Amino acid sequence: MAKEKEVVDNSFAKINRVRPVTNVIFTVILSLLALTTVLPMVLVFTISISTSQSLKDAGYSLFPTEVSFTAYESLFKTGSQLLDSYIVTIVVTIISTILGVTMMAMYAYVLSNKRFTPRRVYTFIPFVTMLFSGGLVPSYMVNVKLGLPNTIWILILTGIVGAFNIIILRTFITSTIPEEMMDAAQIDGASEFTVFFKIVLPLAKAGLATIGLFIMVGKWNDWFTGFLYIENPKLIPLQTMLSRIQKQIDFIKNNANVANTPDGMALLKSMPTEQTRMAILMLTTLPILCVYPFFQRYFIQGLTIGSVKG
Q1: What are the CB-based long-range contacts (under 8 Å, 24+) for 283-289?
Q2: Most buried one in 4, 30, 277, 288, CB count within 10 A?
């Protein structure tokens, strides 16, 4: 029996062994793939700090010929508005992520519990919303009826619970957490809340982190909710504010009557269009890129769970 096991182990070791040449090839390929994700961001940053004349003369390049921070200076000339929008977006993103993950984890735990008899019905309810949507008009009427427009709650509560994310979490809990473990805890006197908070949540970190990142990215990039419901300057999200700035520049540029006015000409001179677009992209993308490394190990764990059966 021991010899048989040794033969099997040697066979697996032989299959999984990577030759030096193959290892070099894989390293080169993966390095090139990594460069394809890094170089576009470098190019965007280079364009954002280049002058308009250098872009006309030399075109796009990874290294700026003339450095100018005019685009960033023009954006920061909005005064406290940019800082207020950053604070609103950060607060909304954090609160929405915590609330969304908590609510969807509770729902997914109930659906994964085989002792819950009507779980098929409650699984079907969110599944229907994935196929059929009420649309913009009913959601707008409901939000207005509840008095949510022009408050921070419209930014927090909109879209924090997603049917697809609930089904993902339910599948994750079912496939990774043994049912016998939860049954043993309940036999020892643990309540459903105790099982949920002390067993399910710690063991489902990979799934929760994945769903949390989905919500975080969605809320950080959400501009339409603020565009539709927010009029108070103190509550305008970052994406909505930058979208309005870009639309104002495009409007002045595409309308000769406005562009020929002193204010229009001054704005066009102070805010280079191409560099401003890239500066806006950097301001909106960089913070969420800094958050991603903290979730990376949970993504790796989520990918490897269930890949090896023993």
Answers
A1: 283/75, 283/238, 283/242, 284/220, 284/221, 284/238, 284/239, 284/242, 285/41, 287/220, 288/216, 288/217, 288/220, 288/221, 289/41
A2: 277
Question: Token digits for 272?
Answer: 């280079």
* C-alpha to C-alpha distance for 215 and 156, rounded to whole angstroms: 11
Q: Are 219 and 96 in contact (CB under 8 A)?
A: yes
CA-to-CA distance for 274 and 210, rounded, in angstroms?
34
The angle that helices 262-270 and 238-254 make with each other, rounded to 10 degrees, is 120
The tens digit of pLDDT for each residue in 21-47 reads 888 888 889 888 888 888 888 888 888
Distance CA 175, CA 114 (A): 13
What average pLDDT does this structure show over 104-128?
A: 86
The DSSP symbol for 50 reads B
Instruction: For residue 200, give the DSSP letter.
Output: I
> Which residues, in sequence order, are CB contacts of 241 under 8 Å at separation 6+?
78, 81, 82, 85
**Whose structure tokens read 């003339």?**
66
* Helices assigned H by DSSP within the chain: 2-16, 20-48, 52-58, 70-76, 80-112, 119-131, 136-145, 152-157, 163-176, 179-187, 192-195, 201-203, 205-220, 224-229, 238-254, 256-259, 262-270, 273-304
Spatial distance between the Cα atoms of 240 and 85, rounded to a whole number of angstroms = 9
Whether residue 119 contacts residue 110, with contact meaning beta carbons closer than 8 Å, is answered with: yes
Amino acid in the structure at residue 76: F
Its sign, for the CA torsion 22, 24, 28, 34, is: positive
Please name each of the domains of the chain with its CATH number.
1-68 (no CATH), 71-304 (1.10.3720.10)
